[in-house]
Each structure stands twice: as structure tokens, then as C-alpha cells.
Amino acid sequence: MTETIYKATEAILDGTVFICFIAISISLLLLLYRMIAGPTSPDRAVALDTIGINLMGLAALVAIYLVTPNLNDVILLIAILAFLGTVAIAKYLEKGVIIDRDMD
Amino acid sequence: MLFAVLLPLLFAILVPMLSKWKHKIHTGIFVFFIPFLIFLYFIRFVGNDFTPVRQVYNWIPSLGINFDFYLDGLSLLFVLLISGIGSLVVFYSIYYLHVSERLGSFYVYLLMFMTAMLGVVLSDNLFVLYTFWELTSISSFLLIGYWHYRERSRYGAQKSMLITVFGGLSMLGGFILLTVITGTTSIQEMITQTDLILSSDYLPLIMGLILLGAFTKSAQFPFHIWLPDAMEAPTPVSAYLHSATMVKAGIFLVARFSPIFATYEWFFIIVSIVGIATLCWASYMAVRQTDLKGILAFSTISQLGMIMAMLGFGTKAAIFAAIFHILNHATFKGSLFMVAGIIDHETGTRDIRRLGGLLTVMPITATLAVFGTFSMAGIPLPFLNGFYSKEMFFEATLHLNEVVNPIANVIIPLIPYLAVFGSIFTFVYSMYFFFGVFTGPKQFDKLKIKPHEAPIGMLVSPIILVVGVVFIGLFPNSVNGTFLIHAAEAVNNAVEIKDIHFWHGWIPPLFMSLAVVGIGALLYLTREKWSNVYHVLPGKMSMNKVYDGLVKNVDTFSTRLTNTYMTGSLKTYMSIILGTIIFVTFIVMISTNGFNMEFNNLAEVTWIELAVVVIIIIAALATMFTTSKLGAILITGVVGYGVATLFVIYRAPDLALTQLVIETVSVALFLLCFYHLPKLEKRKESTGSKLNNMIISIGFGALMTLIAISAHSTEWFDPISDYFIETAYKLGGGHNVVNVILVDMRGLDTLFEIAVLGIAALAIFSLIKLRKDKEAE
To answer: Where do the H-state alpha helices sit in B592-628?
Structure first.
């Protein structure tokens, strides 16, 4: 009985993961369109940030799919990097520089 | 014998010290004893019962290269010429060179040359011979360029260097072939293997290369052009190198190798034709010269041609005559050069048009010149050695060995006529030299210095040489038994022993000599009338023009060639590099049948992989076409993140981590420097260039893809990764196999990657901080 439930749960999980894969892929493709089409740099920056978030999701899904805890670091790292990257790009767009010189 | 050969070189080390006292004692006085000692050392070998001496000193025994000195009759003759005339030249130079000159350099070069020349004629080892041969080229180069502040000296030195080293290197090629074929480096052992060499397929090549060396060194047509330009050297050098010794090195080489090649009919054809052509052309050209040393230079060339031709004839009488003429030429030509030097020294000019009527002013010099020039002309007088060898030459041209070869059959009957033709001009320029300088109107007002007789010291050397001329002329048989027979034996084994007489009766060679004198005298008296012939031939044709053009064109051609590919544009270099890789790799892969496509052990493609790959491809394509700088780098970021996702999918978490960090840092770095970069503009490129780029990039991509597929389809052995997985924990103590490999199993790679990063960091730091311009501060 428990085995049947277990199998059913697994089937539901696999189906969900598959659907999510497709959804994220579509979302990535759409983001890519935004990325390439522009029209302005902030558009692209936001697109890249969102791609990062989507990649987190994708990595999590892969972790579920592969049944491994080894990818958790990757997910966390993407989060930090996407944040840092977006801040850097934002600062660049705002000021033209990322690291300010000392204001003596 | 080794010490005798190296003595001048060893003494040369002391010369710079001795030259410090040159104002008290002329350096040449110390140097004089060196060749004289060598002369005394070698003169004791001379005798009717001379037998060859061999001495071997190890140098590089493992390669068969040793100081292998072999003193036979031919070497002995040359050694005595080198040391004897060397002593006289050094003695002459004491009076010729003023102490204000750089005497130290002069005698160092001269002693260097002496060692080199002794080594050339004594070496039995091919490679030692070659070493000394090149040393003669180098020291001759230094001596010709002795007055290096003169443009013509530098030109002459460079020209002689280029031509003789060209020949020397060819000769080295011939030597190597000979060594490979015979398995020995000794000339005497090669002579015993003559049959082997003559049956070799490479015989024409060997002979051609060695003859090229000999012809360039001995200034044979068409390589004679360096010798007239070498007359920029101080006169003692011209007398020594360019009449008596170095230019005879080629003659020596041909004589040395004629036991091997003599029976080869092309040896006869090439050496005879070149010799005769040189004889005729140079004697014809000598009449045209106005510089005394120019006349003597062309005269040397023509006499060398005559000797070369006789070596080419290869008959016993011809070889004997050639040896005899080597000796004779060294005596009278050496004295004539010294006479020319005296005239130059005492009148301030060597231009024959400004000289004349010196007979009464310089009677001793004039007497010396009479013997020299008349001997050179081959005038039948019983006290001139030139006549004997010339008569023998004529006789040799009439009795040539029959060679069955269509070319040989054409030239054999022509040779006596050509010999007479060349000799007529020899007569003309000899007379021109003597009468032009010593008779005719006195025109001393045109001279810078009031002419007067030379100091006695300067006259000693030419007097000794002229005494030699007369002595050999009067008693030719005294040198016959002691020198000539042994030397001729070394060249041509069974030499006929014959006495040399002045009078042979009314035989054809005598008539040829008389014809030379008759027609020559006629031509000399009427030379004003036919001198226009030089406008027709050589006219515009000149080997000098060929040489100059060659040197200039090689220069411009290589500049142009280099400019075609060294454009300074990185784009061009990149296309050349990639194009070469594509071309070479494709050819290798196709010729070795290396492309291999198998699709039977592929993994299944999942949706998610497909989606990521599609994204990467789209992003990569977009990078190429985007016009926005920031857009380009952000889209590249997408590619990097996509690759990280692939790492995730392919279960490489460590790689994914690193890739993500690196990608982000790179994007940040790009952003850092973007502010300072100039605006990216769409460059206008021609369609051809675009097409070229497209072909190269597509070709390269296709090549790499094909190689990757082939590599995947080819599995020669099992991967070793199983071992790592099995032993990572057991041996390395870690569960993370990647990290165990990085720091434990292959820690050395990691160490140096750390070093790379360190270097990069330091380099960036110094690039930013260290600037020479103050502006950056």
C-alpha cells in the first residue's frame, strides 16, 4: 500500500518536474528574447537578473530530478551572484563606474 | 706540426700588447719571426727523397673530427709559399704601414689568416679543412675592411665575404655528402675509395658543390668579381692573400680532390671550361683597368684560371705545369703587388693615367717590375720562370686526354686557340703595366708627392721574390726535383720525371709563344684604336651588376615578402594562424583517414538539455550581431550562465560553482573597463574580408566539431576515471572526487594554476601602477 502511494507520489513529482522544466525553458526563451531585443540596457540587465533567478529554479529542479543534495550550493551561489551582478550593472548604468575612487 | 700551424694564432694573442710599443718598435718586427720560424720548420722537410708525413691530434674523436695533418708534396709547396711569402709580406708591411695605423689589428688579422691558410693546406680531415677554410674567409674579410672608414673597403669586404662564404657553405655540403658515402672524414682514405665515390648517384652533386667552393675562393668566372673589389685592402694584404695564398686555396682544393674526380669526364669539362673562360675574360678585362692593383687583380684571376684549366686537363704534363705555375705565379705576382704598393707609396697614386716616366726616378723598382711583368707575360727569355710554365701550358693544351663526350669533343680542339687568345691579352696588360708606369711622358705635376725611390727596407721583399723568379728561370731543375715532382705526385700518382729546359727546339708551343708576343706587341701599340671594343663587351653586361642587382633585389624582395604577411594587423595574423590550423589539420585528418563518425553509443537527449542548448546557441549568435557594447557583454553572460546550467545538468556541481563565479566576475570586469573603452562602431569591411572571416570561422568551427565527434567515436582504451572514483576516499580521504584529484592526485597542476593566477594579479597590479608617463599619477 505504502509502496503504491510512494510510486504515485514519485510519478506526480516527475510529472511536476517535467512540466516545470518546460515552463522554465519557455520563460528562459522569452527572457532571452528580451535580452537580445533590448531595446535599452536596463531591459537587458533586468532580463539577466531574471535569467539568474530562473536558473536557480532550474538548478533546484535538476537537483530534484537527479535526487542529489550537491546542487544546493549552486542555487545559493546563483542567488548571491545574480544580486551582485545586478547591483554592479545597475551602478554601472547609473554612474558609469562600479567602484568609486576615493573622494579625497 | 700542430704547434707550427697554431703558432701564428697563439702569437696573435700577444700582438695587442706588443702594439702598445709601436712607436718605439714597429709591431711587424716581432711578427716577422713567426712566419720565418714556420718557414724554417717546414724547409727541413724539403729534399729529393721526401716522403709524406702524417700527424694526428684528437679534437672531436667521436665525430671523426681531428687535427689530422698530412704533409705531402702539394701541402709542402703551399706551406712554404704561405710561410715564405708571409715572412716577406710582414717584412714589407713594416715599411709600408705607418705606426699611426692600427698595427695591432692588422697583425692579429694577418696571423689569424696565416694559421687558417696553413690549416687549409695541411688538414687531411674534411671538417677541419672546412673550419680553417672559413677562418680564411673571415680573416680575409677583416683584412679587406681594414680601412673600415672607407665605403669602398666595406663594400669590398662584404662582397668577398658573401661570395666566399656562399662557396664555403656549398663545399661543406659536398664534404658532408662525401663523408656519408665513404664513411670516413680523411681525404687520403677517400682517395683509396675513389671507385665508391665515382659510382655514387650523388657524384655530380658532390663535385658541383665542392667545385663551387673552389671556384668562389679562387675567383673563377663568374665568381671573380669579389677579387677586384678586395683591392681596397692594404697592399701587403693584396700581395699576400689575393695573389699568393688565399686565392690559391681553391686551386689547392681542386688539386687535392683531383685524384678522386680526375677520371670523371664532367670534371674535365667543367674545370677546363671555367678555367679557360676565366683566363680569357680576366686577361681581356685587365687591359681595361686604370688602377695598378685593378690590373693585377684581373691578372691574378686570369692566371688562376690558367692554373685551374691545367688542373682540369688532368694530364700528367698539365698537372706538372699547374704546380710549376703556382710557384711561379706566387713569386712574380707577389713582387708585382709590392711594386704597385711602392709606386702608390712613393707617388701617392695608383692611377696608371697619372703615372709615367718613373724609370729614371725609381730605377730599382723599375728593374723589379721588368722581371715581374715580363715573366707574367711569358716572354721567351731564359731567366724568366713565367715562360717555362706558359710553354708547358701551351704544350698541355695540345696533348689532352681523349674524352668521349660530345661537349668535350667540341672544346678540346678550341682550347689551344683560347689559351693563345688569353695569353695575348696577358702580354698586352703586362706591357701596359710596365711601360705605362715607367716610360712615357713625365707628369709629376699631377702627383701629390714628388716621386722618389723607395727605402731599401721596402725593396727587400720584392727583390727576394724577383731573385726567386730569376733563379727558377735560370735553374728550373733545382725546384723540379725538390718541389714539383713531389707535389705533382700528390695530385697525379705516377708523374713522369722530366727535366725542364729553356730550349725545346722548334715545337708548336714555341710558335704559340712567339705568336703571343707578336700579336700582343701589335695590340699593345694599337690599343688606343681598339679600346672602343670595351663599350661593346662587356658594355652593359657585367657580373658586378648581376651581383649588385641580386643583393639589392633579395633585399627588396624579402622586404616586400615580409610586408605582405607582417601587416601589423592582428586580424591578419589571426586568419593566418587559424587558416594554417584548418589547412594542416584537414590535410592530416583526411590523409590519415582520421575522421570517424559513430552514433551508436550516444546518450539520450533530454528536453532540458535541448532547451538550454537552444538558448546558448541563440545567445551566441546574438553576440555576433549586436551593436550595443553592453548588450554584447550581457548576452555573453547568458552564454556563460547557460554553460553553468549544462554543468548542473551533467552533474558537475564544482564546475558549475566556479563557472558562475568566474562568469559574474568577468562581466563585472568588462563593465569596469567599458567606461574607458572607445565607442564600438560598426566597422566597414569589404565583402571579401567578410567572406574570408566567414570561411575561416565556419571552417574552424566545422573542423573542431568533426574532431570532437571523431574523438568521441574513437576509443582506444578504457578511461582511467574508475581508478579515481574507487580510490578517492581510500587513498585521498575525501568524498569529493573532483577536489581530491585537484589537490591530491594531481596537486602539481593546481599549484601552477595558482601561480598563473598570482602572476596575472601581479601583472595587473604593475600594469595599473607602474607607468612611465607622469600624467597617470
So the answer is: 607-625
- Are B488 and B78 in contact, with CB atoms under 8 Å apart? no
Task: Give, as one character, the DSSP assignment of residue B482.
Answer: I
DSSP state, residue B123:
B
Separation of alpha carbons B132 and B123, rounded Å: 9
- pLDDT at B495 (0 to 100): 64
As a whole number, mean pLDDT of residues B505-525 equals 83
> Grid coordinates in use for B546?
648581376
CA distance A103 to chain B (A): 16
B611 contacts in chain A (CB < 8 Å): 21-22, 25, 28-29
Neighbours of B407 (CB within 10 A): 14
CB contact under 8 A, A29 and B637: no
Q: Output the nine-digit C-alpha cell for B90.
A: 710582414
Contact B282/B429 with Cβ under 8 angstroms? no
3-state secondary structure B364-390: HHHHHHHHHHHHHHCCCCCCCHHHHHH
Number of A:B CB contacts under 8 A?
Answer: 107
Residue B764 touches partner A, C-beta closer than 8 Å: no
Q: What is the pLDDT of residue B577?
A: 92
- For residues B614-623, give the mean pLDDT: 88
Cβ distance B114 to B129 under 8 Å?
Answer: no
Within an 8 Å CB–CB cutoff, is residue B739 touching chain A? no
Mean of all residue pLDDT scores within chain B: 85
ipTM summary value: 0.76
CA gap B591, B586 in Å, rounded: 8
B729 CA: distance to closest CA in chain A (Å): 17
The pTM score is 0.80
The pLDDT score that the predictor gives to residue B135 is 92
Neighbours of A4 (CB within 10 A): 8
pLDDT band at B679 (very low <50, low <70, confident <90, very high): low
Cell representation of residue B175? 664534404
Phi then psi for residue B359, to 5 deg, are: -55, -45
Each residue's pLDDT tens digit, B293-331: 888 889 999 999 999 988 888 888 888 888 888 888 888
pLDDT of residue B498: 66
Closest C-alpha to A79, from A99, A41, A50: A50
The answer to whether B672 contacts chain A (CB < 8 Å) is yes
Report CB contact under 8 Å: A21, B645.
Answer: no
CB contact at 8 A, B734 and B740:
yes
